[in-house]
């Protein structure tokens, strides 16, 4: 990828590689991913793997039965969830559950309202799903996840760079800078670079990597331009609606070109926001997942 | 070493299986895309599923406004409507365990993008969790094949409908339409063209000179030449005799057919002129009639004037009362005849649009007094009353307005045979001049209200048949007033009298 070859990226890599305990996704995700690459894997194999991590397994069942999927029958076993929702959905569900687990392990820091931030992530996911549907994207689960994962770098900074995090908070409290500018000032790079680096490490699909990298400026996206446009708009709508905590009080500029590419007119917003709020209601399970247990 | 052999053997097995799968996928893809019927596609899919995953039942639903069951194969099985809905709404294939533990039902939505085309449901003698991800992938791919077939059919139907509509449109036009390509070979001809030009053969891809009558094709070729050269040309009027001897007149116009900015050929439109020719013929007849009436009236007037003059002279010379009385009858009848001819001439002049208003300033009061004096002599039973200020200056055509007043006051006298008051009133209303003439006569019956301004119309009943007239007076009044951009109205109460209102626009 072009961006990783730049000098800046190399520098960031150097800084980050020094981190001893980089955040990792639970083992179960990697295993599920491995099974899915093998065409002979059956629902049974995958179910056994998921059940080996009870925390994840119970979340998977809750999400599968939630209004997010709205399946008309009760799904009682993981196997049932896999055959009914399909293999790729299960992978997505496990990924989102894994991110929740990750939040639990890294999120608890006094300097950052991680629950508020998670809420912002879920809202961005929900708005992305609606805007994506409006744009005619077929795989809406993936769009939701792209929204959910757009900003994880922020929380990594606050967890692993506590000294710089204090600085960042101070700069943001000044009220004139965005979180991205503050991060650059304190660290030399921002959460977008961290997210990109992290997702590459996790071996996530190119879509998630590019959306994390480009959602502030979708015009530079090459592989996933439409989803980047979608998440860009969803992020700003979630901020505008005041849902959760995006790290600062600013409201970034909506890129005119993104609206044009998705053919969204000013008059569409009230409908999109209304549908987005309803979708957020259906996605409540993801917000609850962080608090429960 | 042993391990390596094992690994390679396994890999080989996997590859052989993959090749088999690809082969069967290729086969089914060929079957689907070469099929001409949905039934045969579902048949192939069903066979494929039976062979590979013990499929034993199949149902297909397609959206035609609502979801409609189209095809059912193999064993009968129950279908859950809410699962169908969910599967289509989420565009997700879903395997649902069956009541019988060893069986499962697979719902495969047929969707492309956000377009919902239908759903296929399959019954398998296999547990839900026994499907591996490879199987679900292949099933999903096959459902895409079926979806794209359905979408293709839908698009084809839409296109067919659009083309049919266009064809019907062309065929139902009352005009003849011919299109040709740049080489001027005919591409399309509608039915009416065949009727216009009496052609019977197939004309497509032929030059017009091969198929149209020579004189006509020569003219059309010239028309196309000038269109091609100058970009425009005047409409041609052509005529030809049909095989039944009927003369057919038609207009020919031509235009360049442009697709985008390129010149793709020409379109020629033949328009039937029979109707407009007929109209032209009637207009000509009307003109002849007008000329005839005008000539005859003039010819009649000359001798009549002589008759009148000599009669007057004779009257002075006559000594006997009987002679005088006879002569005065001749004089009266001549006057009537002269009047009739004058009125005919007026109507004729007005109807042919030759009425010309010579605007001049004059005192309306003077004019009305003059008319009153003229008419007072006709009747002793009537009392003419004039209600108006000292003078009333207007700008209008003196002679024409005088004719209006003679007609209106004359009618008031004529149609109040028992006498009574006739009130003439001059007024200004919203800047307009309003002249009203009110009598206490027999009135105008309701059924005649919308006809009295038509030329030659006369109210025909026991009250009016003793009153003479031509039926032209009010028609003249209305035409003159209209020529002045004014209007005539009336109020009438049968048995009590009528009031006519003439409204003229203010003087300039």
In short:
The complex is a heterodimer of chains A (293) and B (508). Chain A has 293 residues and is mainly alpha-helical.
Which key terms come to mind for this protein?
heterodimer; A: 293 residues; mainly alpha; Hypothetical protein af1432; 17 helices; 66% helix; globular; B: 508 residues; alpha+beta; Beta-Lactamase; Helix Hairpins; 4 domains; five-stranded antiparallel β-sheet; 25% strand
Can you walk through the features of this model?
The complex is a heterodimer of chains A (293) and B (508). By secondary structure, chain A is mainly alpha-helical. Chain A has one domain: Hypothetical protein af1432, CATH 1.10.3210.10. Helices cover 66% and strands 0% of the residues of chain A. Chain A is built from 17 helices and no strands. In chain A, helix 7 runs antiparallel to helix 8. The radius of gyration of chain A is 19 Å and the shape is globular. With 508 residues, chain B is of the alpha+beta class. Chain B folds into 4 domains: 2-157, Beta-Lactamase, CATH 3.30.450.40; 174-272, 2-Layer Sandwich (Beta-Lactamase), CATH 3.30.450; 277-351, Helix Hairpins (Orthogonal Bundle), CATH 1.10.287; 360-504, Heat Shock Protein 90. Chain B is built from 12 helices and 17 strands. Chain B has helices at 2-34, 38-53, 81-90, 133-172, 191-197, 208-211, 214-230, 274-317, 321-351, 364-376, 398-414, 473-483; strands at residues 55-64, 66-74, 94-97, 104-112, 115-124, 176-181, 186-189, 236-241, 247-259, 262-272, 360-363, 382-387, 393-396, 420-429, 432-438, 487-493, 497-504. In chain B, helix 1 runs antiparallel to helix 2 (38-53), helix 9 (321-351) crosses helix 12 and helix 11 (398-414) runs antiparallel to helix 12 (473-483). The radius of gyration of chain B is 46 Å and the shape is elongated. The interface between A and B is medium-sized, with 27 and 28 residues.
Radius of gyration of chain A: 19 Å
Number of strands of chain A: 0
Residue-averaged pLDDT of chain A: 86
Number of helices of chain A: 17
Order of helices and strands of chain B: HHEEHEEEHEEHHHEEEHHEHEEHEEHEE
Overall SS class of chain A? mainly alpha
Helix coverage percent of chain B: 40-55%
Report the principal-axis shape of chain B: elongated
Q: CATH top level of the largest domain in chain B?
A: Alpha Beta
Would you tell me which CATH topology of the largest domain in chain B applies? Answer: Beta-Lactamase
Q: Characterize the largest beta sheet of chain B: strand count, sense, and whether it forms a barrel.
A: 5 strands, antiparallel
The gross shape of chain A turns out to be globular
CATH class of chain A: Mainly Alpha
Spatial ordering of strands, largest sheet of chain B: 2-1-5-4-3
Helix and strand composition category of chain B: alpha+beta
Task: Write the H/E string of chain A, N to C.
Answer: HHHHHHHHHHHHHHHHH
> Regions of chain A with pLDDT < 50 over 5+ consecutive residues?
none
State the assembly state of the protein chains.
Answer: heterodimer
Q: Based on the structure given, which CATH architecture of the largest domain in chain B is correct?
A: 2-Layer Sandwich
